[in-house]
Specification:
This protein is of the alpha/beta class and 253 residues long. The protein has a single domain, classed as Glycoside hydrolase/deacetylase (TIM Barrel, Alpha-Beta Barrel). It is 35% helix and 15% strand. The strands form two sheets. Strands 1, 2, 3, 8 and 9 form a five-stranded parallel β-sheet that branches. A four-stranded mixed β-sheet has the order 4-5-7-6, with no helix packed on it. The chain starts with 5 loop residues before the first helix and ends in a 9-residue tail after the last strand. The structure holds zinc ion. The site of zinc ion (ZN) has 5 residues, from strand 1.
Length: 253
């Protein structure tokens, strides 16, 4: 069944009429190694001319991933926590960087993750921290600039531009996977309505259009429906009044 894209088509027309431009970015989580789905992700990114920010799990990242990324310049590594291990007690939502451990221990994990990925990816690594499950305690956020990060990325439209002085919030806004249901694609009509609504919120000033609008994917668990929808959504967005956004590299001292 072909979904009805009319709400998005109309919204993008309204953007054109208003002379607005959407900064668009793409984040894909949980990479550790080059795989067939990673190749598919890279090919889609090339075709769309939209880079993918690949949130790599430092403790499990394989050197082969660095080799693969050195030939795919559209795949841009960022830091996905440390080991993707939850420290939340039983019954609480999963979080690696919640307030469940001494800050000293948390900081050591963050530092280890940054160091490991810098060793693997060198200057290509962007100083963006992506906490697993998009959860991070406020007291941990404030430590990130001191550890070398200039960007923090979670999920949902940002309420303020910075999480801490020098730490920009660059969130993601749409996740096509039905994590709580069958782990396939969320009903497409619902996703299309959501994008159109989020874009309308920006156009009408209810949300910050200076924040890059982020699509969040997880290449390792995509089925055909998720791949197809993601490709079509991005294709339609890229045909609109859009500027692709890429995380800046760390400035030297
Ligand atoms: Zn993750």
């Amino acid at each position: 069944m072909t979904p009805d894209w009319t709400p998005l088509t109309r919204e993008l027309e309204a953007w054109r009429d208003a002379g607005l431009t959407l900064p668009l970015w793409w984040r894909d989580d949980d990479a550790i190694a080059p795989t067939e789905p990673l190749g598919r992700l890279a090919a889609l990114s090339d075709r769309l001319r939209l880079p993918v920010h690949l949130a790599v799990i430092p403790a499990r990242a394989e050197p082969a991933l660095a080799a693969a990324l050195s030939t795919h310049l559209g795949l841009i590594p960022v830091v996905h926590g440390w080991a993707h291990r939850s420290h939340a007690p039983e019954g609480e939502k999963k979080a690696e960087f919640g307030a469940h451990r001494p800050l000293r221990e948390i900081e050591a994990d963050i530092r280890a993750g940054f160091d490991r990925l810098r060793d693997l990816f060198m200057d290509n690594l962007r100083p963006m921290f992506v906490p697993p499950w998009n959860r991070i305690a406020p007291e941990v956020e404030t430590r990130l600039p001191g550890l070398g990060f200039t960007m923090l990325s979670t999920f949902t439209p940002r309420k303020e531009t910075e999480a801490a002085p020098g730490l920009a919030r660059i969130n993601t806004h749409l996740d096509p996977i039905d994590w709580r249901g069958n782990r396939s694609l969320v009903e497409p009509g619902q996703l299309i309505t959501q994008v159109a609504q989020q874009l309308a919120d920006r156009r009408e000033g209810r949300a910050d259009n200076a924040e890059p609008y982020g699509i969040l994917t997880h290449h390792l668990v995509h089925d055909t429906a998720i791949w197809d929808f993601t490709a079509e959504l991005l294709e339609r967005l890229m045909a609109g009044p859009v500027t692709p956004w890429t995380a800046p590299i760390l400035k030297g001292p």
